[in-house]
Amino acid sequence: MKWRKILDVAIAGHIIGKQRHRCKGNIAYTPQETRQAENTVAALCLSSLGPEAAALLPLSPKAELKLVVAGYYHGKRRPDGSNLLKLVEDALQGRFYPNDKAIVDGRYLIYNADKNQEGIEIKLWAR
């Protein structure tokens, strides 16, 4: 079966990688910065779709997915690539696909960039 592109979006600005959960007593929670970044990524990805493509979401639980995230960062502000990938996986989960375990090929690329060229590119394919 052939891969079909579902998403191809560029997001400008500094996007953080997923941070470790925090604990307060016996309760673990996601840091607010991470939640905000996930919501920003999800909203911008959804807004990049046309109405026909958005109507097909979320994809079937049987779909196999390929996700590529490229990060462009200035200086020492680069996040860990796997944390950036996980942030995007979690941001799209529930909106583009039911569960991120459907991702059979997940990759990240990190590049050096000028400060005014920071951002990420997200590409998602399904079959």
Following the backbone from N to C, one meets helices and strands in this order, namely: EEEHHEHEE
E-strand count: 6
Low-confidence stretches: none
Question: Structural class, from helix and strand content?
Answer: alpha+beta
Principal-axes geometry comes out as: globular
What is the name of the CATH architecture?
2-Layer Sandwich
In this structure, how is the largest beta sheet organized?
4 strands, mixed
Account of the 3D structure:
- It contains 3 helices and 6 strands; from the N terminus they run E-E-E-H-H-E-H-E-E.
- The protein has a single domain, classed as 2-Layer Sandwich (60s Ribosomal Protein L30, Chain: A).
- It is an alpha+beta fold.
- It has a 4-stranded mixed beta sheet with strand order 1-6-4-5, with helices on one face. Strands 2-3 form a two-stranded antiparallel sheet.
- Helix content is 26%, strand content 33%.
Topology:
Blueprint (H helix, E strand, L loop, with lengths): L3 E9 L9 E3 L2 E3 L2 H16 L3 H5 L9 E9 L7 H12 L10 E10 L6 E8 L1
Task: Please sum up the structure shown.
The protein is of the alpha+beta class and 127 residues long. 26% of the residues lie in helices and 33% in strands.
